[in-house]
Each structure stands twice: as structure tokens, then as C-alpha cells.
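Subgroup meeting minutes
Present: P.N., E.W., G.H.
Scribe: E.W.

1. P.N. recapped why we're keeping a running log of single-chain structure predictions: easier to compare across weeks, and new members can see raw inputs and outputs side by side.
2. G.H. added today's entry (306 aa).
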Amino acid sequence: DDAIVKIESLLNDFPNDSEAIAYLGRIYKEMWADSWKNITDKNKRMKYAFDSYHWLIRAIDIYLRGFHMDLNNNYPGINALTFSTLAVYLADKFDDKEDPDPDITRIRENLDELRGTLIFGLEAMAEDDRADYWTLISLAELRVLTADNISSVSRAYRKAITASRRNLFYLNSSLGQLEILKALGLREEFVQAGIDTLKDEIARTSGDEAPQTTGKKGKSKKAKTDARAFLFTGYMVDYPAKEKKTFPAERENEIRQEIIKKLEKFKISPDDRAFVGGLSAGSEILFAEVCVEKGVKVKAFLPLPE
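Output recorded in log:
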């Protein structure tokens, strides 16, 4: 609720900010999904998803508003198509055939035009060698909704993965979108193809492809490890304009050796993982370098765009 108030206040001052509009749409989408996603019975879950479709329609209208402002911004466009398709799918199962909801009817009437616009735009943009992850994953999500064969879905997701730079946030965000479709039974085989491709890449990226062992009943189990997480934050090397001096350049090797001693005291191993809040030119880079030298994977959370 706080986020809605703040974004709508922002849009009063900047009504054409398509990014803010897209985030507002996402909030309403999450409100809709939160109302039914924990219901275990599939039929009840689908019925409740339809009964709370007023949140879904609100999200669709906001996404459409953002897409119409900037047709090159694929995020609101593909979300508008995905949730319009879901709204029509649920209405076909549960809406009153004699007295259909006028908002669903409006969405149904616009669906073909929206689908055609996205196919035309995304296929052209995806041909560009500089196409980013969000363009390619939007095309993959479009394939889930429109493809005639499952292999084209897998190919589209694999192509998007090549632009993900092994970013787990990107991959999990895309997986979450597919999980919504799976929970409601929309185009299940196509959705599952996308889920399988993303989960395989997430496992590779996160290092979860551990050796398999066989239990007493012949079931495959992952080998257990006592892995740990090492968190690090530190200081930037001193430079002339730096007000508080904390890291004289001439002490770089001394600081590196202290980091090594500390990690060796903990007997750090390749099963462990290291996390660092930035990669400033100083002890954070030293920590990351030492971990890599010891075969430990490092996850750096950058406070600024790459």
C-alpha cells in the first residue's frame, strides 16, 4: 500500500514515466497473485484467481498504459499480454457466458492486436546482436503464449540465457513469471519447457549441480556439504581527495596477507561461498581476488550499474 501511494504520487509529477508505471503494474500483479498462490487445491486456486481478477485487470490496464507510452519498452508490453491471456483463460472457465464482464470483453477484443504488435516488435529487436536479456526473455515469454511447438520455447529461453551474464536475479525473476502460469494451468507443456531451461541454468550458475549419491531405497540424493557463507565489506584505498584516510596504498600487501590469514583460520574451501557488498578499489577487491585464488565462488553486489 505504501508503494502504491508513493509511485502514484511520483506519477502525479511525472505522468509519462513508463518505468514507474510498469512498477505500479507489478505491485497490482503481486497483490492479485498473493490472493490465491498459497491455495493448494488447483481448481479452488483457479477459481479464487478469477474471483480476485479486479486486481489483475488493474495491473493489465497499468501495463498497457506504460506500453502505449513507449512501444520499445517490452517489460510492460509482455506483461500486459501475459496477464490479458490469463484473464481471458480464466474467464472462459468461470465468467458468466450470458452476462460477461465488460472489462474482460474489452481485454479480449484487444488481445489479437496486442499480440501482433509484440510479435512484430520483439522479433525485430531480438535480431539485433546488441539485444539485452530483457528483450530476449520477453520474446521467450511471447513464445510460451503463442508457439506451436515446444522446441521453439526452449530455444528462445536458451538464447535469452546467453545474455543473462549468469545473473541469478534475472533468472529467478523470469522463473517466477512462469510459475504463475504453471499454477493456473495455462499452456502447461510450453510453460514447463521454459521452467526446465531456466532451472537448469540456475543450478549451473548457483553451483547446485552437486554429485549424486544413492540412498538405501535407490533414490538419488545430493551429497551433503558443510558449506558456509563468508560476508565481507571493507575500505577503499586512500586517494588525495579522500577525507578520512583508512587504507594507505603502501599497506596493500599487508592487508592482503591479513585477509589470507583470516580465511585460512576458517579453513575456507571451494564448497564455501563468498559475498561482497561492492568491488571498490581497495580491500573488497583484495578479498575477492584471494577467494578466487582459493577456488571459492564470489558473488559481488554492485551498488551502481555496471
